[in-house]
Amino acid sequence: MADFDLESAEGRLEALRRMVTIRAFDEEAGDRFADGEIPGFVHLYIGEEAVGVGTCAALEPDDYIASTHRGHGHCIAKGLDPKLMMAELYGKADGYCNGKGGSMHIADVDAGMLGANGIVGAGPPLATGAALTIDYQDRDQVAVSFCGDGAVAQGQVHEAINLAATWDLPAVFVVENNGYGEATPLDKQHNVENLSDTAQAYDIPGLTVDGMDVTAVAEAVSEARARARAGDGPTFIEAKTYRYRGHYEGDEEPYRDADEIERWKDRDPIESFKRRLIDRGELTEDEFDDLQAEVDAIIEEACAYAEEAPTPSPAEAYDDMFVDTPPEIERFAEAARTQTDGGRTGYGSGDDTDGDHGGD
Ligand SMILES: Cc1ncc(C[n+]2csc(CCOP(=O)(O)OP(=O)(O)O)c2C)c(N)n1
Ligand SMILES: [Mg+2]
């Protein structure tokens, strides 16, 4: 039995609730990041909610998803707990990854969420790997990856789709085409108008759907799931969507104008699905207000939980990092555990004269 699907009125309400939860979570995360409460970077999913929720509505609870740097929406769509997510954004010990992942690295493998990822294009290889395991162990699951339009030009995305197609693996590749890779518009990144055309190169079905329509996304993924489970291999689904916020919070967005954003907002995925449910007699405006209030309370509770959660101990800095900690790392881990200097002894020594540990 699916967690929720769009076949029943109850499932449709759950889909709406998840989309509303994603938006409320990300609006709050954006505000708290602006207030300096959340470290690192945050990339918000506002505007793209129908893609994550439509996809997860078509999956079974033990199917896998592999996410992106813009992953909060995928987590909530898959049923993850906003409390543990917000704690992770805050870098707290009670977060999904004990505060070591942050916004871009939330994972909950038991829930089928293989991880958000700061490496653009890293989701498809994870999904292909999971699909190979499913196939090898003859399990009744599929693995779905999300990636952006920018990621489609990445070598590892090609490698992942090529292998999954060649080996008929039970994978589904969902491309969130939001029109930009950072500041670069689609036509400066790709020579095709519809990214789904690239599926021809792998001889797999490629379709473009309206990513602002949760039903259209769910139908496409449902068909792709059935095909994958029938042993016929992967499908490439391009969902055309839009992010209302900048690439990252703080992005000044000189590359697009306000009219463009407003045009997309006219097709808002939450508003249009809400209208549809009202027209079908499955929801009233008052019931929607109640749902919004319930969601707001959940997000408020998540924030209170994150604020109060303990910070991780430096002594645990190296825990859960490796299955078998390599000896050259173990000495840092030991230093961290004994709290001599938080494990930094020797780190960055050698030729790293600028002291940035190789970063830029
Ligand atoms: C391998 C790699 N290259 C570059 C980056 C820097 N980077 C972060 S997000 C991003 C754009 C990704 O665009 P897209 O795939 O369309 O996803 P979107 O941000 O639009 O959701 C880039 C280039 C990175 N994180 N990883
Ligand atoms: Mg993009």
Which secondary structure elements does this structure contain, and how are they paired or packed?
Elements: H1 9-34, H2 49-57, E1 64-66, H3 72-77, H4 82-89, H5 123-136, E2 143-148, H6 155-166, E3 171-177, E4 180-181, E5 184-185, E6 206-210, H7 214-229, E7 235-240, H8 258-265, H9 269-279, H10 285-308, H11 327-337
Parallel strand pairs: 1-2, 2-3, 3-7, 6-7
Antiparallel strand pairs: 4-5
This protein binds thiamine diphosphate (TPP) and magnesium ion.
Features:
360 residues, Rossmann fold, 5-stranded parallel β-sheet, 11 helices, 7 strands, binds thiamine diphosphate, binds magnesium ion
Descriptive report:
With 360 residues, the protein is α/β, with parallel strands linked by helices. It has 2 domains: 9-308, Rossmann fold; 313-360, no CATH class. Helices cover 40% and strands 9% of the residues. The protein has 11 helices and 7 strands. The protein has helices spanning 9-34, 49-57, 72-77, 82-89, 123-136, 155-166, 214-229, 258-265, 269-279, 285-308, 327-337, and strands at residues 64-66, 143-148, 171-177, 180-181, 184-185, 206-210, 235-240. A 5-stranded parallel beta sheet has the order 1-2-3-7-6, with helices on both faces. Strand 4 and strand 5 (184-185) form a beta hairpin. Helix 1 (9-34) crosses helix 10, helix 4 packs across helix 10 and helix 5 runs parallel beside helix 6 (155-166). The chain is globular and about 60 Å long. The model is unreliable at 341-360 (pLDDT under 50). The structure holds thiamine diphosphate and magnesium ion (MG). Residues 148-150, 178, 180-181 line the site of magnesium ion (MG).
